[in-house]
């Protein structure tokens, strides 16, 4: 299937009884490569690796979704998302994953990213920028996207781990006083975050630090 042309991603086709966007198929055109480290791994780490789930210790149902090597070792058919058991689990209408107790089913956008990554060969790719712009940093356009991508699977979306809610401005502002920077810097003075995941990129940390240094405005 050529991803340079039109790809039909049948994210949901389970009938009218399913309440979430039933029978919806999404057509995508002019698809850019999906980067594992920036686009896919954060979804798995944030949404799937909480305590008792698919981390390297618990390995619920045999799945460890913390690293590239462990993710592709089971349930991935590189180049064919429809034959990948992991994809099938994500879109099944019953016994959904993640369960409601951990934020519920992934969004269509998240599932589509995973499907495209598999279709593009399930490679360990990165799209890290060569430069890092820390000027004109805002909460809404700079900091919140980082929190949404890496953090709210555990600290938001109905699962407020450690009573730290990073899904909104007030929660992130409060976390500054709860060693947010120490946690994301993995400096040993606070629990390393993201839990079960790799440290945030230096650029993402610099963006958050620049926002804090500017007074952590709600902008």
TrEMBL record:
Molecular function (Gene Ontology), one example: heme binding
SUPFAM superfamilies from the UniProt entry: Cytochrome c
Domain of life: Bacteria
Record's signal peptide: none
Classification via PANTHER family: CYCLOINULO-OLIGOSACCHARIDE FRUCTANOTRANSFERASE-RELATED, F-BOX DOMAIN-CONTAINING PROTEIN
Listed name of the protein: Cytochrome C oxidase, cbb3-type, subunit III
């Amino acid at each position: 299937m050529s991803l340079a042309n039109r790809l039909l991603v049948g994210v949901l086709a389970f009938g009218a009884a399913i309440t979430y966007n039933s029978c919806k198929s999404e057509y995508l055109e002019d698809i850019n490569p999906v980067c594992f480290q920036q686009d896919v791994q954060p979804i798995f780490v944030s949404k799937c690796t909480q305590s008792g789930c698919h981390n390297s210790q618990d390995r619920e149902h045999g799945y460890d979704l913390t690293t590239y090597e462990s993710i592709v070792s089971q349930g991935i058919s590189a180049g064919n998302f429809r034959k990948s058991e992991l994809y099938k689990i994500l879109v099944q209408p019953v016994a959904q994953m993640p369960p409601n107790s951990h934020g519920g089913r992934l969004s269509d956008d998240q599932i589509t990213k995973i499907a495209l990554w598999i279709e593009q060969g399930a490679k360990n790719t990165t799209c890290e920028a060569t430069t890092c712009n820390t000027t004109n940093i805002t909460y809404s356009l700079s900091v919140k996207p980082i929190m949404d991508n890496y953090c709210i699977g555990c600290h938001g979306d109905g699962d407020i781990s450690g009573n730290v809610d990073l899904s909104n401005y007030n929660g992130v502002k409060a976390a500054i006083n709860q060693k947010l920077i120490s946690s994301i810097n993995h400096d040993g003075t606070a629990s390393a975050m993201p839990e079960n995941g790799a440290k945030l990129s230096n650029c993402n940390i610099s963006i958050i630090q620049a926002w804090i240094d500017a007074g952590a405005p709600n902008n």
